[in-house]
Write a structure and sequence with these properties.
This protein is α+β, with helices and mostly antiparallel strands. The protein has 17 helices and ten strands. The longest helix is centred in the N-terminal third of the chain and has 59 residues. Pfam families: GAF_3, HATPase_c, HisKA_3. GO terms for molecular function: kinase activity.
């Protein structure tokens, strides 16, 4: 229902009440001044004239015709009762106000009908004024002045009510219009974004791709050994979007702990010095931080290090600024697009969870109760029917359990105060505890964070892999490895189930979804058999950002895995999904 239709319905009851009050008022005046018979006659005629305005207030012909009839009855009734005391004149307020309220409606789809409504109030006033004043010569000279004054006062009150109703409609319509302005502006901006995005070359709305281009450009500056692009994240920290280095680099992501990062972000000017920009840098270095500024806003930093303490002189700083010029607006556009897409995705997942919980989940629960009631009233000799009902009840219970898992998955997100590894571990423990799986965790996550959209996609990939192991693989053990060292990340889920050959069609559809998610964040997805049986799903992000491997990760099921598992299982207790008891 449109806003104007809502406003129309809100006005309908006050309009009927106004007519009722005025009708009662003129009836009392008429009874007191003209007697019961005349008052009842003219009030009955007036009630018939007012009927279209009460029953069919939006009819294009009957509604305005009824308003004209009301004015005509008031004029004729006043003249038929000798002009004074003009007991019917107060009722003019009702048709005047109603006509003015209708005239203020700006949503008419028929121009001719809109013009007719706009001329309604002046036409009614003209009919009343001409009809009443034209009969002035019939009034005795003694009462003529009083009659003219009474008519003028009645018309003035009618005009005042018409102006008030017109202003009320226009002001409410304006308020409704302004309340929709943010949505209209958002729709226009998103439409423009969609058009522009289709015209941009390649995947230029990907923050990781743009950051990689910036790093590649910065790394070609003479003397540069390490480079990275940092962007803002929650908790007054930075995230590494892309980096270039020959060895493992642990970039500083807290501007409060590094003066060059803080000064470059706040001052929006390049900062050079000998303060290392990474925690892993040893020995003397030269550091340079180039802020990426788009229309007065700092959207990121280009962090550059050189092993030559004198590498970044004025000419090198100018060259670095020139190489990164123009990249800030592209990066900000990509980050905004990712933010909008992430918010829309989160809201849609929450909406789906609410609809499932309030819809099919409740209906399945009621179906289960109905089956229980049917089993309770079965006669003792209905053995076959009871068996069928028990099988049906088991299937309903299974479906309710699956829905609860789906709700838990839809509502799961990476906590801003926690991290990706923590979110995956919580999900794996909860699913394992509910499905009877032994979960073995290997978690390695530092203080640095990935972009929120990337963390969300990696969490969904891990959830899908764990769900496949629970539903289709018939596994007993689940090994989850999570290594987060931005921009490098590796998530691996291994089960000891029946392997890829036993995957149901639904499970294979889940594999396709995981592949699409990995491609969206520029990651690589690998699905391979696990020996002696089972499946391994691994997603790796920015594999080239970690050329020097750490100690080899123990294989799932090995003694080293068991030792690491005993340690990780003491980190935090499992959380159960928050769902209703049905």
């Amino acid at each position: 229902m449109g806003d104007e239709a809502v406003l129309e319905r809100q006005w309908r009851l006050p309009a009927v009440a106004l007519r009722g009050v005025l009708f009662a008022l003129v009836a009392v005046f008429g009874w007191a001044s003209e007697g019961l018979a005349d008052a009842a006659t003219w009030c009955g005629i007036l009630a018939l004239a007012a009927l279209p305005g009460v029953v069919l207030p939006r009819h294009r012909l009957l509604a305005p015709a009824g308003q004209v009839a009301e004015v005509a009855v008031v004029v004729l009734g006043t003249l038929a009762t000798d002009g004074l005391p003009a007991w019917m004149l107060p009722y003019l307020i009702a048709p005047f106000a109603t006509a003015a309220f209708d005239a203020a409606d700006q949503t008419g789809d028929d121009d001719r009908y809109s013009r007719m409504r706009a001329w309604g109030p002046p036409v009614l006033v003209a009919i009343a004024a001409i009809g009443l004043i034209a009969q002035t010569p019939r009034i005795s000279a003694y009462d003529r002045g009083t009659y003219v004054t009474t008519v003028a006062v009645a018309l003035a009150f009618g005009l005042a009510s018409a102006v008030g109703a017109w202003w009320l409609r226009r002001s409410r319509s304006s308020d409704l219009h302004h309340s929709q302005l943010p949505y209209a502006e958002a729709a226009a901006l998103l439409t423009q974004l969609r058009v522009v995005a289709r015209q941009l070359p390649g995947s230029t709305l990907d923050p990781g791709g743009i950051a990689t281009e910036i790093v590649d450009t910065a790394s070609r500056i003479p003397g540069v050994a390490r480079a990275a692009v940092l962007s803002a994240a929650s908790g007054r920290r930075l995230v590494v979007l892309a980096q270039h280095a020959e060895e493992r680099v642990d970039w500083e992501t807290s501007p409060q702990l590094n003066s060059l990062l803080a000064d470059a972000w706040a001052g929006q000017k390049p900062q050079a010095g000998q303060v290392p920009l990474s925690r892993s840098t040893q020995g003397p270095v030269a550091s340079l931080v180039i802020p990426l500024v788009a229309e007065g806003r700092t959207v990121g930093l280009v962090a550059i290090e050189s092993d030559d303490p004198a590498a970044f002189g004025p000419e090198a700083i100018t060259a670095a600024e020139d190489r990164t010029k123009g990249a800030a607006l592209r990066l900000e556009t990509a980050l905004l697009f990712e933010d909008v897409r992430s918010m829309a995705t989160t809201e849609e997942r929450q909406r789906l969870a609410r609809e499932i919980h309030d819809g099919i989940a409740q209906e399945l629960a009621m179906l289960g109760y109905g089956i229980d009631n049917a089993m309770a009233i079965l006669p003792p000799d209905a053995g076959e029917a009871k068996g069928e009902l028990e099988d049906l009840r088991s299937e309903v219970t299974r479906l309710v359990t699956e829905l609860r898992f789906s709700l838990f998955e839809l509502r799961s997100n990476v906590d801003r105060q926690g991290g990706l590894a923590s979110a995956i571990a919580d999900y794996a423990r909860t699913v394992g505890a509910s499905a009877g799986l032994r979960v073995h965790l290997s978690l390695d996550e530092g203080g640095a964070r990935l972009p929120a959209s990337t963390e969300a996609e990696l969490l969904r990939i891990a959830q899908e892999a764990i769900t496949n192991a629970r539903k289709h693989a018939r596994a007993e053990n689940l090994w989850v490895t999570c290594e987060v060292d931005p921009p490098y990340t590796r998530i691996e889920v291994t089960d000891d189930g029946q392997g890829l050959s036993g995957e149901a069609s639904e499970g294979r559809y889940g594999l396709a979804i995981m592949s699409e998610r990995a491609e969206r964040i520029r990651g690589s997805l690998e699905i391979r058999p696990h020996q002696p049986h089972g499946t391994t799903v691994a997603v790796v992000l920015n594999a080239g950002a970690r050329p020097t491997p750490r100690a080899e990760t123990p294989r799932p099921g090995s003694a080293a895995w068991a030792a690491a598992d005993r340690i990780s299982r003491t980190e935090q207790p499992a959380r159960r999904p928050d769902h209703d008891n049905k």
